[in-house]
Structures are given as structure tokens and as C-alpha cells.
Amino acid sequence: MSFAELAAELNKIPPFTRITMLSALLITAPIMLKLVRPFHYSFDWSLITGKLQIHRLYTSIFIPWRLDDPIKWLFDLFLLYRYLLQIETKSYDKRLPDMVWQFFWSMATVMLLCYPLHFPFFWTPFIGFVVYFSSRLSPNETTSIYGLITISIKWFPYVIAAFDMVMSPMIGCGTIAGMVVAQALFMLEYDAPSEANPTEEPRLKQRSILRAPNWLVRLLVAPEANRPAPSKRVYGQASAPAGRGFGDDGRGTNVASSSSGYNWGQGRRLGET
């Protein structure tokens, strides 16, 4: 596969999911291969404030706790891609600024909750956040655990938290912190299904304090996407913008000119002379 074909395939992935997955691969893979020490990417508040190493706020999200278990990391990558893609395509379609803004503040809140525990990495809280948020947005779906047991998606985050708690109580606390923040985001942004119709999909609230500001919308949304579609005048199977006609050299059909196009006459029937 050529580079151009690879780039074309990557561009098919929605932007937030694409950038997140590439970040996870580009940051963690060199650490797994022992090319880079994880210390350079970990969360260290003294270095963030003292030496302005702001990049640690971002890179610490994508480093797993157990760097000696690549199988678990690959499984987490699969979970992240599946549920983050589902969130972006189903609930945040054409709402990229809102997704960026809300995930930014959500992860900031996760870091604040985990700060007393001195978390160096936030990979498991991020996975817990994404999986739980997806489960609240799509409560009627099912998933399988290692392809063996099929359960409702709403219970799946708790299964992940239980596994992480068995692995390490500290890691499990991080996963639960991510779930708590996801629940708070869901309550602020969506209306839960009513008790009379529990299978109903959550509805987006008309107003929310977490909607993206205008400057972020202008930054992330292409100007062409905000422009109203121009009105068109239709000529047979082709079309031209209003005020323009084919053969008028861009002057407009309402402009008087003796050379605005070729005069084809009134026409004759076949066989007439």
C-alpha cells in the first residue's frame, strides 16, 4: 500500500478518532519498543508549571500503566477505537467543536480527581470515560467479553472497572474516576430516556453550558461549511448560479449585450425548408 493510499484510508476515519488513535500509537509505540523513556511523557505537575512542559498534559493520557503487557494495550486500543468512533459518528456528527471542547474539560476534571493519588498516566481513566460515555449514549446495544459472553453495553464499563480493580486498586480507582466524569458529562449534555420508555435513545439538550465557544467553532469548522448553499437556476440537466446563464461569459443573463451568446434562431421541424 502506497503512502497516498494509506493517507486516503486514514482520512476516512472521523477527525477526532483519527487524531486520538494516531496519538496513542505514536506516543506509546516508541515506549513499548524502549526507544523513549515514559518519564518524558508522564504527568508531573512540577515540570508542567516549573519548566512549562505543557505537552505532558496531553501525552500522559495515552500511556498505559503496564508497559510490559502489549496484549492488554492492543485490547485497549480496540476498545478505544470502537467506542470513540461510535460516539463521534452517532452522537457528535458535524459537532467536532463540541466534542473537542467537552472532552478537553472532561479529561481536565479526570486529572483533577486523580491528582491526590499522584497518577503519572491517565490511559485507564480515559478508556473508562470513553466506554462509559458510549454505553450511556447507546444503551440498547450489546457487546461481548473476549468473544465469549454477550452482555448489555450498559454493564460493560463496570466489567472493565472490576478487571482493573483486580489488577490494581489504584488503576481501578482511575477507571471509576473516568466513569464518574462521563456520567456528569452525559447529565449536562443529554436528556436520559424516560421511565415510561426506557429503550428510547438519549436526546441532546437544546442548551448546555458545555457547548463549544464561537472561536473554537470558527477554528475547527471550514468556512465553506458555514456558508449557505447558493441558489441555482436549472437548465435541463445542468445548473448555473442565479443571475448567470450558460454562454454569457460570466456577465449574467440580465445584462444587455449583443454578444452574450450565439443566437440559434427559432428552429424548424425536421423536413421543413
Helix and strand sequence: HHHHHHHEEHHEEHHEE
Task: Report the sheet with the most strands, covering strand number, pairing sense and barrel closure.
Answer: 2 strands, antiparallel
The multimeric state of the shown protein is single chain
Strand content: 5-15%
Low-confidence stretches: 226-264
N-to-C CA distance: 64 Å
Number of helical segments with 4 or more residues: 11
The averaged pLDDT comes out at 82
Number of strands: 6
Helix share bin: 40-55%
Q: Indicate the overall shape.
A: globular
Rg over C-alpha atoms, rounded to the nearest angstrom: 27 Å
Q: Structural class given helices, strands, pairing? A: mainly alpha
Question: Reading side by side through the largest sheet, how are the strands ordered?
Answer: 1-2
Descriptive notes:
With 273 residues, this protein is mainly alpha-helical. Helix content is 51%, strand content 7%. It is built from 11 helices and 6 strands. The protein has helices at 3-11, 15-32, 45-50, 55-59, 70-91, 96-114, 123-137, 156-167, 169-189, 214-220, 223-226; strands spanning 142-145, 149-152, 190-191, 203-204, 232-235, 238-241. It has a two-stranded antiparallel sheet. A two-stranded antiparallel sheet has the order 3-4. Helix 7 runs antiparallel to helix 8 and helix 7 (123-137) packs parallel to helix 9 (169-189). It is globular. The relative contact order is 0.08. Residues 226-264 have low confidence and may be disordered.
Tell me the layout of helices and strands:
Blueprint: H1 3-11, H2 15-32, H3 45-50, H4 55-59, H5 70-91, H6 96-114, H7 123-137, E1 142-145, E2 149-152, H8 156-167, H9 169-189, E3 190-191, E4 203-204, H10 214-220, H11 223-226, E5 232-235, E6 238-241
